[in-house]
Design a protein that fits this description.
By secondary structure, the protein is α/β, with parallel strands linked by helices. The protein has 15 helices and 16 strands. The structure holds NADP nicotinamide-adenine-dinucleotide phosphate and magnesium ion (MG).
């Protein structure tokens, strides 16, 4: 262990003191190409500068299978204990993965398991650099999308109705009393859908959004279709407003940020005309659709970060993209890859900064800032991976392979 450290620290400038940490980060390793990048990032950008403390959990699919997925549960519990985690992308098994990895079971998505245990909301934000212009030219600052990740159409019940008849909504309470509402008197065949949400989940979502807005000092927008859905969507609106008035109004005023509610169609129109720099909270379906629109308009999935925030203030940072399987197979064949590590680097910087804030370690916070600055500087100077080279407006571009890109960032970091 000690030997490994010494080797890893080779090349560090003489006299450079490593930054100390107090509480460990929960480190969740992952799969395929992102697992390769994960190791490069630690060796080149973290170990030389920080006395890195992590509690390591191997969420690679082989180890999830070997531990019957217990490792995922353990890593989520560790996150609840320590408060901050950083996660590498992981494979969500499907039929093809069953044979590829000889799996005992089609294990659930680790992100789903962790999200359920942390009761969290996912915030996705683009990393904005000069030279990678968003398609929407007035978007000067990032737009962070917060998606409610429970219920609605994702937990629905549906019926295909064969012919004429009456459709009703029925709720039977525990004491047997019923509430009934006629949905429609069908005169012919049709379709029917029932869906739900809970006050508890909407409350968690609202609190996670308000806390994240305060944390990042950005305005919060929330939108539903309450004029049409006078009970369902209106409940979302009311819960947000009540929590805001009772618990956050004062804090928002102090932080000089705003909470703003509007109709979803109005929000969409305003977002297109806005400069960015705010959080857009969406119901589950709206968030699913709008997050893909926002991320593709900002340029690249490889430049999108993601953080899961629990209502109790627990944070898990990751990249929004997957394990980049196609690149990994090239890597296994010994071919060169040019995989973009920016979102994974920003997952680390986000987690380190949050750890620094919680433990009051200004040097760690400042290192996180420098790591991000160095990464942005490399790209803005025209050194980048292939995915960005294809979309940049910068003229003289040097296309780097996966490892070279990280080494260029290391050089910049050493110059600070
Ligand atoms: P992906 O890993 O997001 O990659 C899809 C394509 O997007 C890549 O083939 C590549 O395009 C491009 N791309 C994504 N990230 C990139 C990066 N960092 N640098 C350069 N190009 C990048 O999705 P996938 O290959 O469809 O899924 C692979 C595995 O990831 C799946 O097993 C899935 O379950 C898992 N997944 C995990 C998470 C997570 O853990 N959060 C999220 C999504 C998916 P080109 O091939 O054209 O270069
Ligand atoms: Mg989607």
């Amino acid at each position: 262990m000690v030997m490994a450290r010494i080797v890893k620290n080779k090349g560090v400038k003489a006299g450079m003191e490593k930054i100390n940490m107090i509480t460990p980060l929960v480190e969740m390793d992952g799969d395929e190409m992102t697992r390769i990048l994960w190791k490069f990032i630690k060796d080149e950008l973290l170990y030389p500068f920080i006395d890195l403390k992590t509690e390591y959990y191997d969420l690679g699919l082989e180890n999830r299978n070997a531990t019957n997925d217990q490792v995922t549960i353990d890593s989520a519990n560790a996150t609840l204990k320590y408060g901050v985690a950083v996660k590498c992308a992981t494979i969500t098994p499907n039929a093809a993965r069953m044979s590829e990895y000889d799996l005992k079971e089609m294990w659930k998505s680790p992100n789903g398991t962790i999200r359920a245990m942390l009761d969290g909301t996912v915030f996705r934000a683009p990393i904005v650099v000069k030279g990678i212009e968003p398609c929407v030219k007035n978007w000067e600052k990032p737009i962070t999308l917060a998606r409610h990740a429970y219920g609605d159409v994702y937990k629905n019940s549906e019926i295909k109705i064969p012919g004429a008849g009456k459709a009703e909504l029925v709720f039977t309470s525990e004491d047997g009393t019923e509430i009934r509402e006629v949905i429609h008197n069908f005169t012919g065949a049709g379709i029917l859908q029932g869906m739900h949400n809970t006050e508890a989940s909407i409350t968690s979502f609202a609190k996670a959004c308000f806390n994240y807005a305060l944390d990042t000092k950005q305005d919060l927008w929330f939108a539903t279709k309450d004029t049409i859905s006078k009970k369902y969507d209106h409940t979302f609106k009311d819960i947000f407003q009540e929590i805001y008035d009772n618990e956050y109004k004062h804090k928002f005023e102090e932080a000089e940020i705003e909470y703003f509610y509007t109709l979803i169609d109005d929000a969409v129109a305003r977002v297109m005309k806005a400069k960015g720099g705010f959080i857009w909270a969406c119901k589950n379906y709206d968030g699913d659709v709008m997050s893909d629109m926002v991320s593709s308009a900002f340029g690249s999935l490889a430049m999108m970060t993601s953080v899961l925030v629990s209502p109790s203030g627990v944070y898990e940072y990751e990249a929004a993209h997957g394990t980049v399987q196609r690149h990994y197979y090239k890597h296994l064949k010994g071919e060169e890859t040019s995989t973009n590590s920016v979102a994974t680097i920003f997952a680390w910087s986000g987690a380190l900064r949050k750890r620094g804030e919680l433990d009051q370690l200004p040097e760690l916070i400042s290192f996180a800032d420098k790591l991000e600055e160095a990464t942005v500087k490399v790209i803005e100077s025209g050194r980048m991976t292939k995915d960005l080279a294809l979309i940049t407006s910068i003229k003289d571009v040097t296309v780097l392979n996966s490892e070279e890109f990280i080494k260029e960032i290391r050089k910049e970091l050493e110059n600070f």
